[in-house]
């Protein structure tokens, strides 16, 4: 069929004029007013039709037969359904995520010939012309891609990673190289809350063993902690003032230190404006608002992405090279980051490196300030803690930070440093091989237990060296907990937000769950988060679709990287259908990933790479499939590129 191709530049993005979701290929177009409608909206309109025309698409059971408006004859046209494509790749309930267009615009319906008229004036259309099918990609490109993929995987043996990690499930140590244990947690395949453990590894061990063990946990949607990503002594170069000075050195024009920047007031999530030098000073000294109270601020969109990339390559290249799994997840070079396979000029808002600078303080239980309210992301993300600082303004004894907490399955427990407490060990250093170092915790002391805390100077130690104070406290829920979590939020929305109107609980980022909220979730709903502290040099990996929240125990600088792994593609596609139904102005929709487009370009890249490996004898000798870690070549190339950039910057 001769389907007209839309005229678009590679750096342009087409969005549906009704639901505002990005369109990556087939869509319907109005020749008169240029209105574009995605196939998911077409599906919703057809589903709402009470009298379905014979042979028309209904309930995703078959194709649509439509008269071709552009043709002189009444020949039939098959309409590829976005829903039918998604159902093959990512199975989901067929009636889920319907916007309900019929209830909003009762007159917008399917014509007798199977065509759809342009949207009414209230929906932004002309309401008169028939919509015609258009495409964005080259003709048959997707079909050829599917055929090439099927030919390549035909006869290959697929490795099943979905059963989790047997070495962790059986409480066995991963000591195949004769060293001490790798600091891994005991993990469980159980669907119950007893399986809420966290896989943790040291960066050097991860570099040696590769990502096989990591992926066995990651494919099940488990968060992962990578420790010792850099020496804690190097964190001094990451305080906001040093970052500001480093950016000044690489900029051609001098930046104004009195420039006004945007920040988020963590007490009410409102946006405020503040001078950059005032924010930097308040990072360690505290900043008071007009009411005389200390403000908990989080810097927004600073430094800009382009400036941050230049700063990292010119001023901190060693951190980029040693960033955990950077050769897999880097926004441009990561070969297991699907978003990195998009064309260089493609528009994507939620990928790339970000610097997150926020105030923080420790207070009495229940009175702490959240930095990130409960939220969920469509893609994967990793946060590495680069710097932390106590607010010097909080020097009075009554405002001294709380003593260190150890965490047990969502419950904060004060621990005496000299009292042996079973199953609450957070000291992740090397120990004797007969002990399994774990970052999982069980509430063996009871939900209401509270042990007397030691003095502030009595800190946990690792290998006889005093361990640093934690910078942030994380709560991460499992993907399968989302339905019950949404149910709890909807039932208690007024109490949590002082707003009786329930909107979109898990996407609104309007709630921070305190300890008593988490106890209710555990006792009445049977779910609880994985709760853990983050220290300097620790990278926290959060899979797509896992709700999480963060509170700062001190002021912190986090280096964050958004990416999309193959293991998270299915969940990201499912979330895309949910986000499509949100209001058009919703923040989650504005940051939506083009999952379909990403998947296609990633598949195309994979086909080309496999062809190069299998057909090029010289390349095949250099890269051996039996190697546990195939990243060495990419790492060396990344280091070489970074070194060249550093020389040019100098």
From TrEMBL:
GO terms for molecular function: chromatin DNA binding; histone H3K9 demethylase activity; metal ion binding; transcription coregulator activity. InterPro entries: JmjC_dom, LSDs-like. Residues 438-457 have a biased composition (Low complexity). One of its GO terms (cellular component) is chromatin. Residues 429-469 are annotated as: Disordered. Residues 331-580 form the JmjC domain. GO terms for biological process: regulation of transcription by RNA polymerase II. It is found in: Nucleus. Its main location: nucleus. Keywords: Metal-binding, Nucleus. Belongs to the JARID1 histone demethylase family. This is JmjC domain-containing protein. It comes from Aegilops tauschii subsp. strangulata (Goatgrass).
């Amino acid at each position: 069929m001769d389907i007209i191709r839309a005229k678009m530049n590679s750096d342009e993005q087409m969005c549906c004029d009704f639901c505002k979701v990005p369109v990556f290929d087939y869509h319907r177009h109005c020749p008169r007013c240029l209105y574009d409608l995605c196939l998911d909206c077409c599906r919703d309109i057809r589903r709402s039709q009470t009298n379905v025309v014979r042979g028309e698409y209904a309930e995703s059971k078959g194709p649509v037969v439509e008269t071709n408006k552009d043709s002189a004859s009444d020949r039939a046209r098959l309409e590829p359904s976005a829903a039918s494509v998604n159902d093959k790749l990512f199975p989901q309930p067929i009636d889920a995520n319907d916007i309900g267009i019929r209830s909003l615009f009762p007159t917008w319906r399917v014509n007798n010939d199977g065509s759809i008229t342009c949207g009414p004036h209230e929906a932004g259309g002309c309401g008169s012309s028939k919509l015609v099918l258009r495409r964005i990609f080259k003709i048959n490109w997707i079909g050829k891609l599917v055929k090439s993929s099927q030919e390549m995987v035909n006869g290959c043996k697929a490795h099943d990673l979905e059963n989790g990690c047997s070495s962790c499930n059986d409480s066995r140590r991963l000591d195949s190289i004769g060293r001490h244990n790798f600091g891994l947690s005991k993990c469980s395949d159980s669907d119950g809350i007893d399986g809420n453990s966290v896989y943790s590894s040291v960066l050097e061990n991860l570099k040696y063993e590769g990502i096989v063990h990591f992926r066995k946990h990651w494919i099940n949607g488990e968060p992962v902690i990578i420790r010792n990503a850099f020496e804690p002594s190097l964190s001094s170069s990451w305080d906001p003032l040093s970052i500001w000075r480093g950016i000044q050195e690489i900029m051609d024009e001098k930046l104004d230190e009195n420039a006004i920047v945007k920040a988020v007031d963590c007490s009410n999530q409102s946006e405020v404006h503040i001078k950059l030098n005032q924010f930097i000073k308040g990072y360690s000294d505290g900043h008071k608002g007009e009411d005389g109270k200390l403000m908990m601020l989080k810097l927004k969109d600073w430094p800009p992405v382009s400036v941050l990339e230049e700063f990292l390559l010119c001023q901190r290249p060693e951190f980029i090279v040693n960033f955990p799994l950077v050769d897999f997840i880097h926004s441009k070079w990561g070969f297991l980051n699907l978003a990195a396979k998009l064309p260089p000029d493609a528009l994507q808002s939620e990928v790339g490196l970000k610097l997150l600078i926020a105030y923080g303080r420790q207070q009495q239980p229940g009175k702490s300030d959240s930095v990130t309210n409960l939220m969920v992301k469509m893609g994967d993300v990793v946060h590495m803690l680069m710097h932390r600082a106590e607010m010097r303004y909080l020097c009075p004894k009554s405002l001294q930070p709380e003593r260190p907490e150890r965490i047990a399955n969502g419950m904060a427990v004060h621990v005496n440093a000299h009292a042996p407490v079973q199953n609450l060990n957070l000291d992740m250093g090397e120990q004797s091989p007969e002990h399994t170092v774990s970052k999982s915790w069980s509430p063996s002391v009871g939900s209401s237990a509270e042990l007397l805390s030691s003095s502030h100077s009595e800190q946990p130690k690792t290998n006889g060296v005093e361990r640093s104070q934690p910078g942030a406290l994380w709560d991460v829920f499992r993907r399968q907990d989302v339905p019950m979590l949404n149910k709890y939020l909807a039932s208690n929305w007024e109490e949590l937000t002082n707003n009786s109107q329930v909107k979109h609980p898990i996407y609104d980022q309007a709630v921070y769950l305190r300890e008593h909220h988490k106890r209710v979730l555990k006792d009445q709903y049977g779910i609880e988060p994985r709760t853990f502290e983050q220290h300097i040099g620790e990278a926290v990996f959060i899979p797509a679709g896992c709700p999480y929240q963060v509170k700062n125990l001190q002021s912190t600088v986090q280096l964050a990287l958004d990416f999309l792994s193959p293991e998270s593609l299915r969940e990201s596609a499912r979330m895309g259908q949910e986000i499509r139904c949100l209001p058009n102005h919703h923040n989650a929709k504005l940051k939506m990933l083009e999952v379909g487009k990403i998947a296609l370009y990633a598949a195309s890249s994979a086909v080309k790479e496999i062809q190069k490996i299998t057909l090029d004898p010289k390349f095949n000798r250099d890269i051996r499939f039996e190697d546990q870690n195939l990243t060495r070549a990419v790492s060396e190339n990344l280091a070489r590129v970074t070194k060249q950039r550093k020389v040019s910057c100098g």
